[in-house]
Design goal:
The protein is mainly alpha-helical and 158 residues long. The chain has a domain of 97 residues: Arc Repressor Mutant, subunit A (Orthogonal Bundle), CATH 1.10.10.10. Helix content is 71%, strand content 6%. The chain contains 8 helices and 3 strands. A 3-stranded antiparallel beta sheet has the order 1-3-2. A hairpin with a 7-residue loop joins strand 2 and strand 3.
């Protein structure tokens, strides 16, 4: 049997990607339970980029703004802006680092923490199960492929 061509693989991906993206974006059961929170998010004019900050904090716990910027691959100024907007809307808490007063630590407010942690786990569980099924080399290639695809999509004109 002949090795698939790039066009063969492209056609298969065109079939696989739309339902994959649709299902990844679909609300989890926990997310559906958080409709009042989602309305507050929209009313505060917060968007997907703010959601990335919340998901990162839900997965990794409190972080300095600099650590958060690095984890999100954003400029510190952009991250600081997002943190400020989330803080004003009541979606996160900022406080000085006890060890270094120049550093600001951000975390999820207690009232939102468990719900947001559950949403993050539910949203990422299919990806986690996929990565667990791959051998380390295949996993590295998969992640590299997604990284390259992301960079190529970002280069597209709007």
């Amino acid at each position: 049997m002949a090795e698939p061509t790039i066009d063969d693989d492209l056609h298969e991906l065109l079939e696989l990607l739309p339902p994959l993206v649709r299902n990844l974006r679909r609300g989890s059961p926990t997310l559906r339970e958080l409709k009042p929170l989602k309305r507050a998010f929209v009313q505060a004019e917060l968007g997907e980029r703010h959601g990335r900050v919340l998901l990162t904090l839900a997965l990794s716990g409190p972080r300095s703004v600099a650590e958060l910027a690095q984890r999100l691959a954003l400029a510190p100024a952009t991250t600081s802006l997002l943190v400020g907007e989330l803080d004003r809307a009541g979606f996160l808490v900022r406080h000085e680092d006890e060890a270094d007063r120049r550093r600001t630590i951000v975390s999820l407010p207690e009232r939102l923490r468990s719900a947001l942690e559950e949403v993050a786990r539910e949203r990422l569980e299919p990806i986690r199960r996929t990565l667990e099924q791959l051998e380390p080399g295949a996993r590295a290639h998969f992640v590299e492929g997604v990284r390259i695809l992301s960079a190529e999509v970002a280069r597209q004109p709007s």
